[in-house]
Amino acid sequence: MNKSQSLSAEQRSKTILTVVLSVICVIYVLPVFTVVLNSFKVNTFVKTDTFAFPRGEMWAGFQNFVKGMTFGNYPFWKSVAYSTSITILSTAMILLFTSMAAWYIARVNSVFCKGIYFLCVFSMVVPFQMVMFTLSKTADRLHLNTPWTIPIVYLGFGAGLAIFMFVGFVKSIPLEIEEAASIDGCGPLRTFFLVVFPMLKPTMISVGILEIMWVWNDYLLPYLVLDINKYRTIPIHIQYLKGSYGTVDLGATMALILLSIIPVIIFYLACQKHIIKGVAAGAVKG
Fold first, then answer.
1. The predicted structure's pLDDT at residue 87
2. Fewer beta carbons under 10 A from the terminal one: N or C of the chain?
3. 3-state secondary structure of 248
4. What is the pTM of this model?
């Protein structure tokens, strides 16, 4: 096979790969596109003409958004505030505590640290459904059923992936840098926050993005732990868009779903390159 034939075969393989990935991309984007279409339709046409473009009598304008945000006795702005505070607190706690734990696990070569590491990795494969009932009962007993205490629960569930990625990156950091800081008079805390912590930025951004997307969109954990009569996150608020006899206004539901995913999509598109860098740094190196 000459050079031109090899180049032709390589181009064909790239073309096939591009087509396959494009089809997969369309499959993933289709649900979001459907939500956008139906968020501007009158409720009666959402079921009958799901994939049709909203025009004529189908067009509802922004009435669905207004209806969804003013439905019932629970204000939508409260749900936004609770989701935002829970997401920020949970992500901040996960990043701070798991990075410190990962640094200790990576640098202290003991049976205890290895055991903790493998337990954290094992927690990633345990389905949430196995522990959700006992978790709900434990959270009630420990008074972790408020938006300001539920981040502790998220810390426990998010620690597995975060520690796995942080440990992989810390192992790639030369130990001589920390030894030099120790010689200069830095204790463990100063060494971590002044030397190690800034170097964790790639993995820190990656873990932060993944945790933000998870906590913001989570429905089951807040539903089980929080008092939904007092505290409703955005997914719970959307679930309660029901009228008499259990009827659901699908147009308003789609409108609020669109409002809830827009911040995540913008945030992900702005930071997606950091996800790839962080995953590669945490999982390949070390």
1. 95
2. N
3. strand
4. 0.85
